[in-house]
Design brief:
Blueprint (H helix, E strand, L loop, with lengths): L3 E5 L9 H10 L4 E7 L1 H10 L4 H11 L7 H6 L1 H10 L12 H8 L15 E7 L5 E4 L4 H8 L9 E3 L2 E5 L17 E10 L11 H23 L4 E8 L9 H22 L2
Parallel strand pairs: 1-2, 1-7, 2-3, 7-8
Antiparallel strand pairs: 3-4, 3-6, 5-6
Helix pairs in contact: 1-3, 1-9, 5-6, 6-7
């Protein structure tokens, strides 16, 4: 069996599309030897690396988010989980963001079955950015939760995280899809980009403040990724373009999964060719 390296990119709720990739790997009995992740990709990757299957991760996220397809009974069944959101989104007391994402992570990703990187079943690399130096910071050891907080600390939305004397923010600022951290000993590298498809006109006129900030980040991240791809490419690049889903629209998690299916079909074909 080939030694597979899997890189999962950021993208807020769009990053939940990574779950479909993990479900496909489980179905094909292809277990990654190493995972590298940025922002939501790191969060999903941590759940998987700690021992959850792709299907189990889908169930975890389904319990915590209201989908447009949910019935009234579904919503009522999630009542206790949803009440916890009130605490998860209390305003930040630290400078640099509207909210503290530690409560959010503890609530939604409390199912991570490890406290430290060393306890994970699959080696994991989490990418964050040093706010003051602009340097990329790859975290591979130590406490897991602070690293996950750091990689998903979207500037202006979630407060930065101090770790080992550095102020860390969202890793997507420096490396949106960190396939270059998978190591040279992988036989097959798979990188998954869950970007946004921006559509002008109609209701997509002038963006609101949050859309403008996040949209600008998306544009910069896409540009930086293109430059990185010109220098070196993964063996398989999965590019999902999720339409009409903003960074924090968790009510559209089901829509994200639906839009991921064409890319999953393409990945299935590529894996059939690469891993006979």
């Amino acid at each position: 069996m080939p030694r597979i390296g899997l890189a999962l990119g950021g993208g807020g709720v769009r990053g939940l599309a990574h779950i479909a990739v993990l479900e496909l790997l489980d179905e094909l009995e292809l277990r990654p030897a190493v995972i590298a992740g940025t922002s939501m990709g790191a969060l999903v990757g941590a759940l998987y690396a700690s021992g959850h299957s792709g299907t189990a991760i889908r169930e975890i996220t389904h319990r915590h988010f209201i989908s447009r397809d949910d019935s009234l009974r579904d919503v009522l069944d999630k009542k206790s989980e949803l009440l916890t959101w009130l605490n998860a989104f209390l305003p930040a007391t630290a400078r640099g963001g509207l909210f503290r994402n530690d409560r959010f992570l503890a609530h939604v990703f409390g199912g991570v079955l490890a406290d430290r990187f060393e306890d994970l079943a699959i080696p994991l690399v989490v990418v964050a950015a040093d706010f003051w130096s602009g340097e990329e910071v790859a975290i591979k050891s130590g406490a897991l939760l602070p690293a996950l907080r750091a990689t998903s600390a979207v500037p202006g939305v979630y407060a930065p995280v101090e770790r080992e004397g550095r102020i860390l923010v969202d890793g997507g600022l420096v490396n949106q899809v960190p396939y270059d951290h998978l190591g040279a000993d992988c036989d097959l590298t798979i990188a998954v980009d869950t970007g946004q498809e921006r559509v002008p006109g109609g209701k997509h006129g002038a963006p609101n403040v949050l859309q403008a900030v996040v949209g600008a980040l998306d544009i910069m991240q896409d540009s930086a990724l293109e430059q990185r791809l010109r220098r070196a490419r993964p063996d398989i690049l999965v590019r999902m373009r999720i339409r009409d889903v903003d960074l924090l629209e968790y009510a559209k998690a089901g829509e994200v999964m639906k839009q991921a299916q064409p890319a999953i079909a393409e990945l299935r074909a590529r894996l059939a060719a690469e891993t006979p």
